[in-house]
Specification:
Its cofactor is FAD. Keywords: FAD, Flavoprotein, Membrane, Nucleotide-binding, Oxidoreductase, Quinone. One of its GO terms (molecular function) is nucleotide binding. The chain contains 12 helices and 22 strands. With 424 residues, it is α/β, with parallel strands linked by helices. It folds into 2 domains: 190 residues, 3-Layer(bba) Sandwich (FAD/NAD(P)-binding domain), CATH 3.50.50; 152 residues, FAD/NAD(P)-binding domain, CATH 3.50.50.60. The strands form 7 sheets. The chain has a 5-stranded parallel β-sheet, with helices on one face. A hairpin with a 4-residue loop joins β20 and β21. α1 packs parallel to α9. The radius of gyration is 21 Å and the shape is globular. Flavin-adenine dinucleotide binds next to β2, α6 and α9.
Amino acid sequence: MAHVLVIGAGVGGMPAAYELREILPREHRITVISAVDYFQFTPSNPWIAVHWRERQHTTLEIAPLLERKGIGFIAQPVTAIDAEANRLTLADGQGVDYDYLVITTGPKLSFDEVPGAGPHGGHTHSICTVDHAERFWQDYQAFLENPGPVVIGAMPGASCFGPAYEFAFILATDLRRRKLRHKVPITYVSSEPYVGHMGLGGVGDSKSMLESEFRQNDIKWITNARTTKVEAGKLFVTQLDDLGNPYQEHELPFKLAMMLPAFKGVDAVAAVPGLCNPRGFVLIDEHQRSKKYRNIFAAGVCVAIPPVEVTPVPTGAPKTGYMIESMVSAIVHNIVAELNGRPASARGTWNAICLADMGDTGAAFVALPQIPPRNVNWNRKGKWVHLAKIGFEKYFLHKMRAGHSEPIYEKYVLKALGILRLEK
Ligand SMILES: Cc1cc2nc3c(=O)[nH]c(=O)nc-3n(C[C@H](O)[C@H](O)[C@H](O)COP(=O)(O)OP(=O)(O)OC[C@H]3O[C@@H](n4cnc5c(N)ncnc54)[C@H](O)[C@@H]3O)c2cc1C
């Protein structure tokens, strides 16, 4: 009898636990350990920040859901992993042993790389967690009484650009609906070398598409932006040229700023000798397995993926839903294979699919494979993307409530986008 431990109960961890339970014979135990007792659907956070959603719409209490499926649950942060002894330590001091460990701990939000950044004692907001999005909403209500300039974007080293674009368009839409857009200059400030790069080297002609959308929405932009510090109401940016030389200094005044931080791996995972790269992301092989520890697998934002290309200001490659779904499936099949005495052979796909909401319309991007040159470079804009994104949210939350692991991207999104046909 084996004990499979999943650390993290987010977009990767919850489906991993459900899929394991569906396939693994009952004699094997599964336990999920997560830092908090609720699941949050992170992709909805931009909507929470403008109150298009509330916390109760996009979060779920985990314990009863897992209990119903015969999966153990402990709501405690993991503070240490002894990978040689196959044992974890939790914040309350208890130890938990495992035979297989699945790490899906998402990102550590690395605000402290830029002095004055971040929502905890800094001057910029984030929408990376539901708490952060709610904090934005609190300040936004006061801002609406006395509006002014807004800065939205991504810090040096960031890898998750989709939500920054989304949030710029969502905020512009919300302000337009309130008839306040004319009082709010919006500037998009990003470490990407050009608009539409998205950490992917662009997806087809995403540059023209998103520049055009920015122009249509009166959003100005600064790219190759190395944000160096933030003071109350002011963002300091050194803009680099394409060769990486400083080319212009900016001091951008703002009343509200939402800057996505660079990500790192969480401390307990990063501290395991030989498990991670210098930023704390888990080094894995093509079967999602740790290169050093054969009984440790990892999926989602916590895995190490090399940048698609070198950029003047550092950027990373995004890890989005489709990729995470396929990583999780590969892990489950590999653990089951091993327990049945077969070698692990399943692989995740490192393809990028991004649905970005823009308020009342949206943009879809598909990059197969993630690193160019590609077989498929595809982008489209339309109201159907906005609706597809709402469908994705509703279906994912339904799936988490019902406790099944049906792959959404494989079954619905790829078909809806016609990508399976494009791939052939
Ligand atoms: C604002 C935002 C919007 C996004 N929108 C989209 C989108 O629309 N579509 C898309 O495909 N992708 C999107 N992404 C990217 C990606 O899909 C999400 O970041 C997704 O949540 C990543 O899943 P994950 O399982 O890797 O991490 P998470 O979902 O962040 O889960 C991490 C889990 O680990 C737990 N944890 C962390 N540290 C510990 C610890 N020490 N001990 C125990 N538990 C721990 C956390 O509590 C959490 O349960 C978005 C990302 C962001 C930030």
